[in-house]
Specification:
It is found in: Cytoplasm. This protein has 180 residues and is of the alpha/beta class. The chain is built from 4 helices and 9 strands. Helix content is 24%, strand content 29%. It is globular, with a radius of gyration of 16 Å. Bound molecules: 1-O-pyrophosphono-5-O-phosphono-alpha-D-ribofuranose and hypoxanthine.
């Protein structure tokens, strides 16, 4: 798996430092509240499990599965809800936990949906942010690392559902795509 990586974009050490910083920022901002961290499957799973351990205060966790990429390198533009929340969120403080914001389409669809459920607040926490690719202007409240316009894998991010378990974020060698 690692032999297919051309270069590292976010190292394991930088991941740990970034998650610790975000956990602290959230903890300060949500003092006295019990936020619900909503993990967007599958990419955000690794970030989510690290983030909630860096958040040392009462919180709840929930999961949603939304898909727009499938096996493709480009967002399809069509966002499908594959798994919805199990609980009502009216009056609750929500933190959407994402691995990456790219075009912003996934987030736009999610925010629209959650707004109809009358949450008290909706904030976005994304480990990676790729502003160069943005098609929809979404506000990201908590950003881990701003990354260049390259297709990334690792720490939850996949190519054809693989590479999510790499403990760093990197770029694949071009020949990996050419083989497919
Ligand atoms: O800003 P956008 O262009 O919408 O891209 C961001 C979304 O794309 C990825 O999900 P994907 O649909 O690939 O599903 P996955 O997390 O299960 O890999 C990622 O996890 C975000 O949810
Ligand atoms: O760079 C990326 N890599 C993997 N999945 C993604 N989904 C949006 N952007 C990316």
């Amino acid at each position: 798996m690692r032999e297919n990586i051309e270069k590292t974009i976010v190292s394991t050490e930088e991941i740990q430092k970034t998650v610790a910083r975000l956990g602290q920022e959230l903890q300060t901002d949500y003092q006295g509240k019990v936020p619900i961290f909503i993990c967007i499957l599958k990419g955000a799973v690794l970030f989510m499990t690290d983030l909630i351990r860096a958040y040392d205060a009462p919180a709840e966790i929930e999961f949603m599965d939304v898909s727009s990429y499938g096996d493709a390198l480009e967002s399809s533009g069509e966002v499908r809800i594959l798994k919805d929340l199990d609980i009502p969120v009216k009056g609750r403080d929500l933190v959407i936990v994402e691995d990456i914001i790219d075009t912003g389409r996934t987030l736009e669809a999610l925010i629209k949906l959650l707004q109809t459920r009358e949450a008290a607040s909706i904030k976005i926490c994304s480990f990676l942010n790729k502003p160069a690719r943005r098609l929809i202007n979404v506000h990201v409240d908590y950003t881990g690392v701003t990354v260049p316009d390259e297709f990334l894998v690792g720490y939850g991010l996949d190519y054809k559902n693989q590479y999510r378990n790499l403990p760093f974020v990197g770029v694949l060698k071009p020949e990996v795509y050419e083989q497919n």
